[in-house]
Amino acid sequence: MARVSSPAGSTLKERFQSAETYLRNGDWRNAQAVCEVGLQTFSGDPGLTWLLGRCLIGQKKLQRADALTRDLLSMHPDLYRAQELRGDLETVTGDFESARASYNRARDLLPADATAAAEQLSKKQAYLDQQQEATGGALMPEGDSDDLAEAERLKARGAGGEAEAILRRLVRRNPDNAEALRQLATMASEHFQYADAAALLTRAVEASPRFARGWLDLARAYLDLGDYNAALESSERVVALYPEAADAHVVLANSQSQANLHEEAINSYSNALDIAPHHDGAFSGLAHQLKTLGRQDEAIATHRRAIAANPKNAEAYWNLANLKTFRFEDEEVTAMEQLIAQGFDDPEPEAQIHNALGLEYEGRKDYDRAFHHFQACNEARRSQERYDPVATELQVQDMIEVFTPQVLAAGKDIGLDDRSPIFIVGLPRSGSTLLEQILASHSQVEGTHELPDLGRIIHEMNRGRQRDASFPLVARNWSPEQWRSIGERYIASTQKYRSDTPIFIDKNPNNFMYAGLLRMALPNAKVIDARRHPMDSCFGAFKQLFASGQSFSYDLLDVGEYYLLYRELMDHWDEAMPGAVLTMQYEAVVADLEQQVRRLLDYCELPFEEACLEFHNTQRAVRTASSEQVRQPIYSSSVNLWKNYATHLEGLKSTLEPLLAAE
After folding, report:
1. CA distances from 519 to 145, 421, 470, 633 (A)
2. Where are TPR repeat segments found (predicted)?
3. Is 385 left (phi over 0), alpha (psi -120 to 50) or beta?
4. What does the alpha-carbon distance between residue 526 and residue 600 come to, in Å, rounded to a whole number?
5. Which of 23, 78, 180, 215 allows an S-S link to 170, with CB 3.0 to 4.6 Å?
6. How far is Cα 146 from Cα 133, in angstroms, rounded to an integer?
7. Mean pLDDT of the chain
8. Cβ neighbours around 199 below 10 Å, total
9. Which residue in 126, 131, 151 sits closest to 62, CA to CA?
């Protein structure tokens, strides 16, 4: 639980200003804590009570907010802020007519010179106009607002099934109730059913074309689906409908970023910050785009602006550390240590700050302290992750059982004849970005990034199926046409990432699992295994805080066992389809760059080009954690880095002993 300092001599004004500062920075929990501590001393103060109500609404603690606003209105019925707060709560719960009445009462109570407050109320009433249109008529059908509010309360309590039943009843009663459709779509997205969410949201905006929130959520659903053109169209509609909303510009920028429109994304994130100068997401997105384009100094300055706007912005510190080549100033390290001392309510910022400090202390060669922070980071992150090592082992066993040498030999010519993809696979932090940068420096090759498309295709095939009816076991009975269709789907799905360059790279490391599938579906695709010394590979993954995925990497035993399974499967691919996969050892690339580059290009059937040796001069967008490292000449400082942590890695070394003995 966060700890908020509360000296006994704090005045009411100081309490109020402190809570307001937290609110401006988006820190609802600490703002709430300041208000609650303050009300113990200044019981019933309307200002602190009003701020506490804002905190509760912002965190969707709607039952407490309901009781608080009723009490505040009973004690201060002529306080315009009390009426406005009640309207805010009614808006969040979907009771738009009551919200309109509350805002009108607030307007009647405004002092004559309160022009800024009047303008804010006008914006809120304009939003209600949009929401009213979203329900398909001038007035929400009788009872609908109560049902929507009840669905919100049930979701907040974790009773999602009951909330969904209410929303479905609402849609049966009024098929054009766009807000009910939107909330159903939100629940579908929470269960990763993005296609269903997009379908529901499409119905919502067709029923109410000016429903800005519906268009906003539709853009996000299309982003989740990887349909970036559709996301762009939807997010452009949001900006047209609601240009004064920072979130509208952020979702447009997110869409532009995914569509590789990096300069346009920079402009859109900047527009969002013009509207909301403390918007953490806009700062993060802007800095990431600058980093992707190699504009490191501007990215660093943007992250530091974000921290100045919100000193508790853990993501900004983490993003700075994740530049790998960056070093913090001493006062920044002190600020992060202070954040840890204050404590966190949420494990995500806790993990981010610990990871940033771990990377910083590693750069300062204080390895014991660095390991302490890496360990603390992963303990925080593991509380948010679910990793099933048994499921991974079964998946590897199934791949080996299905893709026998006989099956792979018989099927090597049945898939789609397309030579455009190069897959770089392996474990994260094993040199895959370096190999991608080398290849993308060739005139015939373009780098994309870690594409989710192959995994998404397989996930869609397996959704709702039991293990024996899922890939790979079900593939035993596939016809040549089915294998070819997998290749066709992948090539069509990845077209959005490509220009007219004939060859492209997909460097999603997890595709090592699907090398057999690729041999059957895309037999002329190239598969490169980016490999590193087992200890460096495992510890590199362990100390990397990933934005999402790679849930095996947050425990040393899990990552060691995962590495053994990875190597078992790669050994199987080598035996079952000799020569189909090229192993590139990171240490060999560092030791003799030219020889390994020529070997790599020979495998890919590409002529040698000098630019591949000068890869650090190649100007291209790089999104991964190694983006700044691959813009430098080859270096060897990461080789055997694990030895600096040897005293902490005895357990990992023991797990990997069968492989280490043979290295």
Report:
1. 55, 12, 19, 34
2. 212-245, 246-279
3. beta
4. 11
5. 180
6. 17
7. 88
8. 15
9. 151
CA–CA dist 571, 581 (Å, integer): 10
Q: Which of 425, 381, 411 is nearest to 555 (CA)?
A: 381
pLDDT of the residue at 132 = 59
Nearest CA among 600, 597, 639 for reference residue 615? 597
Over range 405-409, report the average pLDDT.
95
Q: Is 381 contained in some domain? A: no
Query: How many other C-beta atoms can be found within 10 angstroms of the C-beta atom of residue 379?
Result: 15
- Comparing CA positions, the residue from 259, 272, 273 lying closest to residue 230 is 259
* 475 Cα distance to chain centroid: 32
Whether the pLDDT of residue 426 is over 70: the answer is: yes
DSSP assignments along 190-218, one per residue:
HTT-HHHHHHHHHHHHHH-TT-HHHHHHH
**How many structural domains comprise the chain?**
1
Burial class (CB in 10 A: 0-12, 13-18, 19+), 225: middle
Query: Residue 363 above 60 pLDDT?
Result: yes
pTM of the model: 0.76
Q: Tell me the sheet residues that pair with 200.
A: none
The pLDDT tens digits of the residues spanning 161-203 come to 999 999 999 999 888 888 889 999 999 998 888 999 999 999 9
CA distance linking residue 43 with residue 37, whole number of Å: 10
pLDDT digits (tens, 9 = 90+) for 586-640: 999 999 999 999 999 999 999 999 999 998 887 645 544 444 444 455 656 677 8
Distance between alpha carbon 407 and the CA centroid of its chain, in Å? 38
For residue 431, the 8-state DSSP code is: S
* Domain assignment present for 145: no
Q: How far apart are CA 212 and CA 117, in angstroms?
A: 23
CA end-to-end span of the chain, whole Å?
46
The strand pairing partners of 584, in sequence order, are 530
Q: Which domain holds residue 568?
A: 395-660
The whole-angstrom separation of Cα 30 and Cα 43 is 19
Q: Is 320 left (phi over 0), alpha (psi -120 to 50) or beta?
A: alpha
Residue 597 lies in a domain: yes
Give me the amino acid identity at 362: E
Pick the closest to residue 176 from 218, 132, 212 (CA basis).
Answer: 132
Q: What percent of the chain has pLDDT over 70?
A: 93
Using only C-alpha atoms, the chain has a radius of gyration, in whole angstroms, of 27
The confidence score (pLDDT) of residue 141 equals 52
Task: Report the C-alpha gap between 616 and 603 in whole angstroms.
Answer: 22
* Residues forming beta bridges with residue 445, ordered by sequence position: 503
* Separation in Å, CA 523 to CA 483, 491, 515, 528, 649: 10, 13, 10, 14, 40
DSSP H helices in 259-328: 262-275, 280-292, 296-309, 314-321
Q: Give mean pLDDT, residues 128-145.
A: 55
pLDDT at 636: 61
The continuous run of DSSP H or E covering 447 comes out as strand 445-447
Taking alpha carbons only, the member of 348, 375, 373 closest to residue 359 is 373
Residue 617's CATH number: 3.40.50.300
Residue 231 near residue 204 (C-beta atoms within 8 A)? no
